[in-house]
Amino acid sequence: MASRLLTRIEGAITRAIPLNPIQSRLTQAVASISFDDIPFSAARVGAPILERAEIQGTFYVCGGHTGKTFEDRTQHEAHDLLALHQAGHEIACHTFAHPFVTKLSDTARDRDRQANANFVRETLGDVMMTSFAYPYGAVSLAAKAYYARQFFTCRGVYRGLNTGRIDFAELRAIGI
After folding, report:
1. Which of 109, 156, 106 is nearest to 131 (CA)?
2. For residue range 27-56, what is the model confidence (pLDDT) as tens digits?
3. I need a surface site. Which of 61, 74, 95, 116 has the fewest CB within 10 A?
């Protein structure tokens, strides 16, 4: 119970401290559609729906799950990732092994991030991932600081809209 409370407090503090803030100048709403882990259904059903509507999505890949099952869901295959990229979707980083990044040292975060970058390079060629999503939505100040240095945007799972002053180190989201 105390551990869970501390985790919630740490999350609230982390969300309250912007590490990469910008002031939005958007004059109208913009929606970003993304898929974490890229389950088979996202690659084979979700992507074609977006494409028929002429919309590109962001697909956060865990290279270590390619061709496997994760949390009882069949994941994408390497050729699905290539098809997503060729269709113009953004391929973004969700770590290689989907760890709780809050429990890793910067050295371990670096190893995992580099493993995913190597996987994407081997699968897609010279593709540089510029966006990141925290696995399980788990974020701490140390993890947030690390990933904010590595990626242009980092997406969390804290519910809300990104308006006014936006923290690119932990973008809000609305899960579906």
Report:
1. 156
2. 888 899 999 999 999 999 999 999 999 999
3. 74
